[in-house]
Every structure is written in structure tokens, then in C-alpha cells.
Amino acid sequence: MSKNINYDNNNYFCYIGAFSDEDYKAFSLILDTQTAIMLERFYYNPQKLKNDVNVAITDFLLETINKDKVPGFAMQESCWDRSLASINSPQFNRLEKALNDMNSWDRDKIINHSKSNGIPFNDFVMREKVSFTETMIPHLKSNPMLLGSYVIMLKIHLLNFKKSKMDKFKLFREFADFMNQDIKIFHAVEFSLAVDYFLGNSNKADNVQSLLKFGSKDPLGAILTSCWDLFFLRFLQLSFMNNMGGIIKPKLVSRDDALINLAMYSSIHGLIEVNDTPMPIVSFDHEGLNITTMNFLDGIQSEIRNSVVSRSQAFIGDIEGQAEKITQIAIQLELELLSKIK
Predict the structure, then answer these.
(1) pTM to 2 decimals?
(2) Domain hosting residue 160, numbered range
(3) Phi, psi angle pair for 86, to nearest 5°
């Protein structure tokens, strides 16, 4: 197993590091959404959890008493209400109370709580279940960092309809040109997934399928969930290189099997500066590709490297304008994708 993937003693929570070839002691722990939700359940109803889950969460809290836990983005994802097109404030308050309170507990409090009936919460929390989503644009405006990933994933889903009918090199050329020329955004993780899916790496096809969630009855909702999975991995990598927001030597805590599998072959390889902004170089293991495919991919990657400055300059001085342009592309792609399933 890669050195950046380490499960706890209960094989419940996984600690994901930024490098595949070395491990390090984390100071900050970025919580993904599943982790935050399980901690909330433990806070309010520990006795309703299965015994092994109760034990695993208790041990996690005991082992991380002195760690800086970072739950903000997990809270945003879990509390975004599609029926409201905004954060569900009562739900957010409930989650925030649980996570903040647990951060102040000592060992005795954690152990005693695990055997208790939990903490009462008197405010009423209601959330309407949404089975189909017409647009995710309001959510993207609440977290613009998801925009690039979302529009790329929309494009991948649309190209999937052509996969059985179109030459794989032409198909991937359309994808690469979309990233490099149309939206001028290069996301290495999404690029890697597209390589594995469209260029024939069957060894990783199952993991790509589980991340991209093709065939969902709520495709836009599924795509946004995928974007959040990839966001947590990207946030880990950027935070490690830049110490973003005081996050120091972070690891990502997750229970998402698809995300964990992706992290096994996606890690920081180095660092470059583009327009005085540090950017991590992310390496991937594209095993199983034949020579013809590798040569084609090398050419695409050379084009991407050679255009890095021009892509970055597209955002200089007019970030809002460029973001709005990409948002309009996302709206068009949403409509196109929904038209194919209705």
C-alpha cells in the first residue's frame, strides 16, 4: 500500500497524506463529509451506533485530542440544501455545535460520552429530500473553488455518451482541448481520471466508475458529489504546499473507498510557481497503457505544460469575468446533459 494511505487500528478511518513515497506526522486533520457526519451521530446518539463504530469513533477522538481538526468544507457540503439552494442553517448549527463541543473534550469526557445516551438538541431541523436537480449553479456560487471541477466533470459525462461510437484518441483530444482552450483550467486529478477512463486503463476502471457515478438518476447531484470528493484531495495537496489558513502538515481523514483508492496513485511530486503562486505538481500512475497511447498522452501533456502561462494569464485582472464565462459554459453543459436523460 502507498505510504500516504494509513488506516487506524480499527480499520475505520483512513488518514491520507500528500505523498505516496513518504509518511509524516500530521498536525492538522482535514475532515471529509462522511467523517464529519459520523462524528455528529456519535455526539448526539452514541448508543444508536453499532458497537464497533462507537469504539472506532471513540478511539479516533482519543488519538486526535491535540490535533487541529478542519471540518469547514465538510460542513458546507453536508449542510447544503438543494431545496433551499442555500445552507440549511438549523442543520449547520447542529453539526457545528457537535464538532466544536467535541474539540474541547478531554479523555474522560470522550470515554464517558461513548457510554451515554448523547447530547440533546432541542431545535427543530428539517430537510426536504431532493431526488432530481435542475442546476447546481447556486451551490457553485457558494463555493467557487468547485466551479472548474464541476464544468470538467460535466464534459466527461457528456463525452461518455460518445465513448462507444468515437475513436478514443479523438474523444480524449476533445476533452483536452476543452480544458486547455475553452475553459483554460487544468485540474490534474480530473485529467487523470479521464486518462484512465477514455484511454483504456481497465485496472482502474471500477474506481473511476465509482467516482464519476455514470448513470445516476440525478446526474447533476452525482457530479457535484464527485467534485466534492476530488476537492478534498486537491485541498489536502494545496494546503500542504501553501499552509493555507494555518493548516500545517495536514492529512485528510476519510471513509470514502473511491477517494482513498484515487489517493493511492495521486500524490504531490513537486512544486512550481506560476505568476508568484505556488502550485503543486501532482503525479499519477498510468500503468497498463500501450506505447501508442503513451506517446499520444505525452503529446497532450506537452501541450498542457507549454500553455500553463497563457492559461494563468486568462484569469489575471478579470477573475470574476472569467468565472462568469465558465459558469455560462457550465449552464450550457447542464442543459445538454439533462436533455440526454429526459
Answers:
(1) 0.89
(2) 137-237+256-341
(3) -165, 180
